[in-house]
């Protein structure tokens, strides 16, 4: 419940920052911070410890300060998105292969 609410509020804040001139690169980095925080933070007990040490919104404020004052994180997020897509593709292929291997192993075990 709380993780979902925090995630939604954080996404709204990222959206507002993007509409007010933050580059797509910094917006994607902020979304990654928020998503990582929500995913890991939703794990019972471990998530509470993670939330105590990992502050996604504080990291996002740092990213915005670096973006506006130091002119870092400028430009397109295309390279970041391509990297994420490649990593997701590899994980999906590995997951499908693992499920296939598990199915073969179980059939051999049963029959």
Describe the structure.
The structure is a single chain. The protein is an all-alpha fold. 82% of the residues lie in helices and 0% in strands. The chain contains five helices and no strands. The protein has helices at residues 2-19, 24-41, 46-53, 56-69, 78-110. Helix 1 (2-19) packs antiparallel against helix 2 (24-41), helix 2 (24-41) runs antiparallel to helix 3 (46-53) and helix 2 (24-41) packs antiparallel against helix 4 (56-69). The chain is elongated and about 65 Å long. 17% of the residues are buried.
Please outline what is shown here:
By secondary structure, this protein is an all-alpha fold.
Rg for CA atoms:
19 Å
Task: Compute the separation of the termini in Å.
Answer: 44 Å
Instruction: Quickly give the structural class.
Output: mainly alpha
Average pLDDT value? 89
Strand coverage percent: under 5%
Helix content: over 70%
Low-confidence stretches: none
Q: Encode the helix/strand succession as letters.
A: HHHHH
Overall geometry: elongated
Q: How many DSSP E strands?
A: 0
Taking the sheet with the most strands, its summary is: none
């Amino acid at each position: 419940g709380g993780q979902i609410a925090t995630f939604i509020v954080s996404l709204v804040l990222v959206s507002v920052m993007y509409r007010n001139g933050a580059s797509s690169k910094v917006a994607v980095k902020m979304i990654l911070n928020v998503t990582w925080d929500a995913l890991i933070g939703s794990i019972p007990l471990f998530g509470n410890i993670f939330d105590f040490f990992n502050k996604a919104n504080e990291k996002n404020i740092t990213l915005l300060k670096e973006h506006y004052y130091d002119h870092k994180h400028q430009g397109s997020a295309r390279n970041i998105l391509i990297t994420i897509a490649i990593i997701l593709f590899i994980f999906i292929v590995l997951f499908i292969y693992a499920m296939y291997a598990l199915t073969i192993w179980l059939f051999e075990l049963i029959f």
